[in-house]
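Late entry, written up from scratch paper. The run itself happened at the end of the previous shift, but nothing got recorded in the book at the time, so transcribing now.
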Amino acid sequence: MKKNSQAPGLISHAVLKMTPKHEKQEFVTVLVRDPRIQKEDSWHSYIDYEIFIHTNSMCFTRKTSCVRRRFREFVWLRQRLQSNAVLIQLPELPSKTPFFNINNPHHVDHRRQGLQDFLQQILQNPLLLSDSRLHLFVQTQLSPEEIEACVSGQTKYSVADAIQEFASMKRRFPIEHEEKKKEENYADSDSESSSSGLGHCSDDNISHGCKASTVPEEP
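Output as recorded:
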């Protein structure tokens, strides 16, 4: 299997400061919005959130993107970023509390705002922007396990390929991964296939739609 290197453009320096007057100032706009309750199984539900990115920064493969993530995936992202940037004190995520109620709009919005504040701060840091995991997190629907496989060169597609494929196909996986899963389903038609992502709704229209609504969530 061909190993990929981290995509050019994802490792470049982030220029988020003032630039000379004849040049445009780079910006990164991130919104965390549209919380939706998703059914995990017969007994459990959770909330995922839409992450909307709009930027003119050269650090990003796509200038506009829209994905959905749940709280535990944010926890994973922070842990990975911190382990790769030990000298940086990362901003905290909103605290996880046993009293969190997915049907309480105040609880949900407080967490949504905390997640947005977290992303706004890490997307302003040039060192963190050089981590391909961050780009795959905010610009694809790959699960944490798939992100790790991609950045470590264990996939046929590169980081840039994954982002471009997600943007153009609006599907869960790059084409070659999707075809592989189809082959596996044909080979084992008696067993029910399940999503390899963490906490993504099985309905891909929900996962990839960029419509705004207001709903509540769970830890």
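The CA atoms of residues 184 and 219 lie 32 Å apart.
(Scratch paper discarded after transcription.)
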